[in-house]
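Input (Sulfate transporter):
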Amino acid sequence: LMERKTHVKINRKAIMLAKLRKSCSCTPQKLKNFLMDFFPVLRWLPKYRCKEYIWGDIMSGLVIGIILVPQAIAYSLLAGLKPIYSLYTSFFANIIYFLMGTSRHVSVGIFSLISLMVGQVVDRELLLAGFDLNDDAPPASGDGSLQNDNLPNTTAFNLTIAGINAECGKECYAIGIATALTFMAGVYQVLMGIFRLGFVSMYLSESVLDGFATGASLTILTAQVKYLIGIKIPRSQGHGMLVITWINIFRNISQANLCDVITSAICIVVLVTAKELGDRYKHKLKFPLPTELVVIVVATLVSHYGKLNEVYASSVSGAIPTGFIPPKVPEFNLMLRVALDALPLAIVSFVFTVSLSEMFAKKYAYTIRANQEMFAVGFCNIIPSFFHSFATSAALAKTLVKTSTGCQTQISGVISAMVVLLVLLFLAPLFYSLQKCVLACIIIVSLRGALRKFRDVPARYRVNKVDTLVWVVTMSASALVSTEIGLLVGIVFSMLCIIVRTQRPRTALLGQIQDTSFYEDDLEYENLSTVPKVKIFRFEAPLYYANRNYFLKSLYRLTNLDPNLEAARRKKYEKKEKQHLKKGNHRTANGLGIGETTLQLVPKQIDFQALVVDCSAISFLDTTGVNTLKEILKDYKNLNISVLLACCNPSVIDSLKRGGYFGKDFGCMQEMLFYSIHNAVLFAKDQK
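Output:
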């Protein structure tokens, strides 16, 4: 046996006390390092290479800003809020991530999946408060004030704000729910950063995330169809929203607005054509075509001068005010109502941001700090929630555009924020006549990437059937039940798949590769030779309480011998023999002589004298696993069959030692444990 190193015992208590003492101490240098870690911009901004980076950052910032404006206005439909709040969200998220983010390239801001999750909570709470979810009422024609609701839907709701009982309309209550939800999501993310719970993201596999994104995209697509064809149906809420919405659409299809249908068809053709041409000639284009902005500008001008709202009753965005509303603390009572809804929102927002950050950091050869990313995203939610904004996340499409247009640092994010600020201060009212069907077209075309995942299903199935099943289950649950339930179902189902795989793993008997010291699965490879008098059994999973029975059943089936049944049969036979001897009959129960009895005790099917267990794929043993190996050691020993273990890793060996497998003094360890299968086989052959 190889000698194990003697590890010095670590005094964990002393280490914890030393770390606590160090963390509680405060020195000027430590304070400086803390500030620089918490605000990474203080580290990289002084080293900014202005001549080398500035033009790429300005170009990418302008392009992203131009894309952000129409997307922000469009995604307000998903969140069930006014477009001004989406613009606030895009502005504040870029500024805060510039200060706190560690990725140089990701674009943080409004994101379709996050907007959908916010919108579902807002709709539910509005419905519970007694508001009408129909948002297709004629827009207010006043100054667009955000403080009062002058729409026909003016159900009042009383809120206690700063000790004053204030009456709050639908819009006021909706943004109150959104900000409370956003604040709680940010708090969760900061707490996860403090307690270093970033490992939670490991349970969201690629299949779960892809399935969740595809299912949510189907929900988003369904929610936008009514805007595409201009029908007025109630916004469905709760489980099965997708099915209910499609039923309502087909019931009211006769009410479709011809003007909206024609506009939608033209916009989708233009947007899809431009996107396809952009993808085909992206290597020749210095920056992506601002198709969304062009479509919005042209559609707004046509709607305004053609008076599509007045003449054809086409639904338009309505008044978008300029400037900023005074900040307001999110309502505590509303936080309690949405505390549970904020948890999946926080996890999804963090996972998308960190995964994108790591992907682009690897691509451009730098590192990010996942824990700091959690703080950055958390404060991108907490601080803007005081300024009437809702939840944010990194978005893949905008990040790809950002990198393709020369982005070098998060200075580009500041440029994008300035573009949004320009719209907030001066240009927002110009979008009054913009048709909602145009915004719906922009949202639907932006889902191309997620919806294309359906084309990858056959290839995914060929690579891994279990991952494909996880994708299908997550996608179906996200689309047919709800996004939050879909995410939970995906996580639980993927973990169940792992458990099932360890409960029923592959097992095999091994044969020897001719003229070598290597052994492989006899059912998978040709021309393997069996080892006389030796069975070699491989179990390809950890051995623990959940798969103990499967381990034993597989071992007995493959070796064609159940030692317990064989021992019971022998005892029964011996008992009969004793009864015959007492009666003075020298013939056995089978009509054989006493000298021939021994031959009968050893059945013909026992064709081996040693069992080698290949433990190379057993990563760990629990108490049940150790007891199982001790059990087979004892059972086979009663049949004069030795059990030898091969290729055990150190943790398995330690578990066996602690469980008493090798005896008290480990004296028999050299005859029971081997570092290769071949050594165990040679030892078995030398045994009498």
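The radius of gyration is 34 Å.
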